[in-house]
Amino acid sequence: MPGQRKRRRHQQDEVQRAAARFARDAGRWEVLFETQDEAEWHAHIRRLRASDTQIDWTSVRVDRLCGRLTQPTMFRLSLFVPNAMLDPGQDSST
User: Fold this and answer.
1) What are the φ and ψ backbone dihedral angles of 30, each rounded to 5 degrees?
2) How far apart are CA 6 and CA 84, in angstroms?
3) What pTM was computed for the model?
4) Which residues, 6 or more positions from 91, have their beta carbon under 8 angstroms from its beta carbon?
5) Which residues pair with 34 in a beta bridge?
6) What tens digit of pLDDT does each residue of 15-37 get?
7) DSSP one-letter string for 25-51
8) Which of 1, 38, 61, 74 is the most exposed place for a label (fewest CB within 10 A)?
């Protein structure tokens, strides 16, 4: 199909950029919300999307930790917080 190679290359480039952006040494994932109730989970996300315009939704991770008989299912919303870059003019000893 025409354009398939270009589309596949573009997708691979996107994956590599995301991997570099969210690399382990680039920052950390900070949990914003965690619950066992799915209805509460959906309501919280709807409220965040409606009210908080400061969240960069491209750097948000949604985890659904599936439980078994011994552990319940957990729903977790995490935000990637990049490491603070040190200003070259700033003294790191203060």
Assistant:
1) -110, 125
2) 36
3) 0.62
4) none
5) 76
6) 888 777 777 787 888 898 899 99
7) GGEEEEEEEEES-HHHHHHHHHHHHHH
8) 1
